[in-house]
Amino acid sequence: MALELRQQLKLSQQLVMTPQLQQAIKLLQLSRMELVELVQQELEENPVLEEGVEIESIEGAGSDEASIQEPGRDEGTIDNQIDEVKGENEGLGDIDWQTYLESYSLGGTVASSYEDDEDRPSFENLLTRTSTLVDHLMWQMTLSNFTDVEQRLAAEIIGNIDEDGYLQISVADLCLETGAAPDVIEELLGKIQEFDPPGVGCRNLQESLLVQLRLLGMDGSLAERILSEQIDLLEKKNYPLIAKALHVTVDEVFIAAKFIASLDPRPGSSFGQEDVHYIAPDIFVHKVGSEYVVVLNDEGLPNLKINSFYRSALSGTTEVDKEAGEYIQEKMRGAVWLIKSIHQRQRTIYRVAKSIVKFQRNFLDLGIEHLKPLVLRDVATDIDMHESTISRVTTNKYIQTPRGLFELKYFFNSGIGTTGGDSVASESVKMKIKEIISGENTKKPYSDQKIVVLLHEVGINIARRTVTKYREMLGVGSSTERKRLF
After folding, report:
1. Domains of the chain
2. Of the candidates 277, 295, 325, 298, which has an alpha carbon nearest to the alpha carbon of residue 402?
3. Which of 283, 398, 478, 484 is the most exposed place for a label (fewest CB within 10 A)?
4. Percentage above 70 pLDDT, the chain
5. How far apart are CA 339 and CA 200, in angstroms?
6. Which helix (H) or strand (E) holds 261?
7. Residue-wise DSSP of 166-229
């Protein structure tokens, strides 16, 4: 077969995403906390950026504000979609860099800088993190009468204990990794299981609860017998069968089961927990008279501006060499585009929130029973954006309403048909299922099929498998798991 070289002209179209557009899309889908972290990182890396006065309110933005450029749209129009970020009359006056550099200490604060002990920071303020479970166990190991070899093996065991306090590796694998005999590992594991907190270092829940009972001096008790011999029936709360198998009364089984329930199923959970970060809403919805007003929450977001010193350097006021000028120019472009992207992100969130409030007015007025079925396409069509943009905006964004705090995605749910021909939101159906279960007789809880019948009586047509799915999403157990004999 002969090979031939020839030229061929081919015309094709493709979307090329510039780095600036990629950054704008990335900012759009970040959560509030992630955005703050990204801005702080940019402030550290880009000398042109600095924090300034508050960003101008977006609340009065018109419906013609621009959104992130959609795939397939003219890329060249993106500069026209975003308001120009001006640098005039913003920021501090000229900076005396000579004085600044002379007074700046490269070595940080040293002990000699404190005139007396009262000026020194307290020791508690120097702590950077809380003790983790591994730290706590290693500290106890150093206080134990272990040889050097035993300390090395114990450290290997402790390193494989998870945050809940359970051993996540088998004895056989530990033997392979350390070369120790199984009886040596078992003996060390038994000693670690006597450490604080009680029940730590066990391989499963049953072993952890048995260790906790042993440390309480309850060897041979009815609770230990139930955990050792009848744990399957205990999970099903079948107290009569347990009583029959162990030749005790049902009341005695109930008392023992109640005590077992008081033990800690996650012995390591109280150590090394991360600091709680409370959700800060991105949008507030206030009711003023008969109307709902959408307000963006700019509190806590760094307000960025261009440093006046570098702006004057580019304008020619300050003499800089060519290489420094190019560096400043590059950083300036990145800073301006970041500010534009953040403004654009806020405007887009505002428009999406206003559209959601318009669609879910009945929910805000009357409650969850009146939540309207809504999909991304409805909002996208309303504000002339792409569905992918709406999806990014509603991810990890929260709105504070008179009805409570909700994620934006909460308002998007499918519809369930009713006997009247209308549809009701799936979240409303979940709430109805929760109300039915909360009002049931705990000795004879409703089955999923019975819940289907009860929902049909109030005009909601739903399949049994859908009820099971929604019940599991609510974290509610089956009728067998919900059954209470006492």
Report:
1. 133-261 (no CATH), 415-482 (1.10.10.60)
2. 295
3. 484
4. 79
5. 50
6. helix 250-261
7. BB-S-HHHHHHHH---HHHHHHHHHHHTTSSSTTTTBSSHHHHHHHHHHHTT-TTSHHHHHHHH
What would the pLDDT profile of 224-258 be if each residue is shown by its tens digit?
Answer: 999 999 999 898 888 899 999 999 999 999 999 99
In this predicted model, what pLDDT tens digit does every residue of 392-435 receive, in sequence order? Answer: 899 889 999 999 999 999 999 877 777 666 778 888 888 889 99
Query: So what's the pLDDT on residue 88?
Result: 43
Candidates 15, 24, 20; CA nearest to 74 is 15
Q: Take residue 101 and report the two structure tokens written for it.
A: 């550099």
pLDDT score of 103: 46
Residues in the chain: 486
- Number of CB atoms found within 10 A of residue 316's CB: 9
DSSP conformational letter for 362: H
Alpha carbon 182 to chain centroid distance?
41
For residue 344, which amino acid is it? Q
What is the reported pTM? Answer: 0.60
In this structure, what are the phi and psi dihedrals at residue 305, rounded to the nearest 5 degrees? -150, 170
Which residues lie across from 163 on neighbouring strands?
none
Phi, psi for 295 (deg, rounded to 5): -130, 130
